[in-house]
Amino acid sequence: MKPSLANIVTSAARGAFVAWLLLAGVAYSAHNKVTAAKSETETKAEHVEFNHNGHQQAADGRIVVEAANGGILLETSDGVLWTIERGDIVSRKKLAEPFKPLPPKELSERLISEMPAEFRTYTTPHYVVVYNTSRTYAQWTSSLLERLYKAFTNYWEGQGLELREPEFALPVFLFANRQQYDQASREDLPGGTGSIIGFYSLRSNRINMFDLTGVEAVRGSGSRGSIKEINQMLSQLAAVPLVATVVHEATHQIAFNCGLQQRFADIPLWQCEGMAVYFEAPDLASTRGWRGIGRVNYPRLETFRNNLPNWQPGSMETLVRDSRRLRDPRTAADAYADAWALNYYLIKYQPKAYTEYLKALASKQPLIDDAPEARLAEFRAHFGDLNKVEQEFLKQMARVK
Ligand SMILES: [Zn+2]
């Protein structure tokens, strides 16, 4: 099947997110014993000097993980995670004061200081938006993200989960054009952004994207000066996959900051990605609420249905067991549709079990990888025998309208 534009754009965008999971795993999982830092609030800050990309630098932060091989995962007060191998550590010193995330205003000042002079910041209750787009575009984006934040957290609290307010204001970078965005994304995407139009970085906790009203397919000849004009422009059919990507990446950022998932923890990809797709239907019609949650994602359903005649028994198991199908560019578009369908089915038909499963995932610590068998066992413990679940899943998903 020929993947649609939506699939190409969004599945590639996910690759960026996935890359960091991989990196983290490679760096530490093989070195067995890791001890997670105790309580986030009690952790004393440390001053660490280390080599990074050939330069020596210093940072204050908290040690999130200390690996048995002497490597550390350091989190600085701006929410950036640094994976530092033992050999790169020059010195470590415990500080007297506890670790404290930067308050929004200070974070905003820190972020702006890293950028060229034309950048500004726009702060809302949960976000610090750093932009050189129009101020209106920054407002439009932060309004969309605040509504998503509220809808997302309300939804899961309604399902019985206890979430927390993010420790850090959520940083979002909006670049005026594609070229600037591409350049600023080099550290996360050394190979270039390619077809990736926006991504969330687990390393930096930031989202990078650019002004979508400048994209040729949606630009037209209309003015894009007001919120209303931006909304109109991005409500066009051609803009749907673009806005869906923004929402998708923002969903990851919220999930990793509200206590639902921990960054660099081994969250099964079918769940992490399928849930982000579950939320990605944008709702631009409403300026207050968010009606997209739990609706059928029709582009994904279409892909899933088209593939159904060729469904191999046991396919669900391969999806749950490891991330191969989701990571391989040749199978990703189909696997994302399968992941959406599986999450949709479980949330709808086994909501209590799904909530309990999310609680189990929330307790997973950074840089500890599960073996494929353990992943299957965890799934079985919450949802039952995989073959039975698969049969019921296929039966119900064939009926979805
Ligand atoms: Zn994703």
Draw up the topology in text.
Elements: H1 5-28, E1 34-36, E2 44-52, E3 55-67, E4 72-76, E5 81-84, E6 89-98, H2 104-113, E7 120-123, E8 127-131, H3 135-158, E9 170-175, H4 178-184, E10 198-200, E11 207-210, H5 216-219, H6 227-234, H7 240-255, H8 269-279, H9 298-307, H10 315-321, H11 324-327, H12 332-349, H13 351-362, H14 372-383, H15 386-399
Parallel strand pairs: 8-9, 9-11
Antiparallel strand pairs: 1-3, 2-3, 2-6, 3-4, 4-5, 7-8, 10-11
Bound molecules: zinc ion.
The site of zinc ion has 6 residues, from α1, α7 and α8.
How far apart are the termini?
21 Å
Mean pLDDT: 88
**Please, how many helices?**
15
Count the strands? 11
The backbone outline, from C-alpha atoms, is globular
Helix- and strand-based class? alpha+beta
The secondary-structure element order is: HEEEEEEHEEHEHEEHHHHHHHHHHH
Strand content: 15-25%
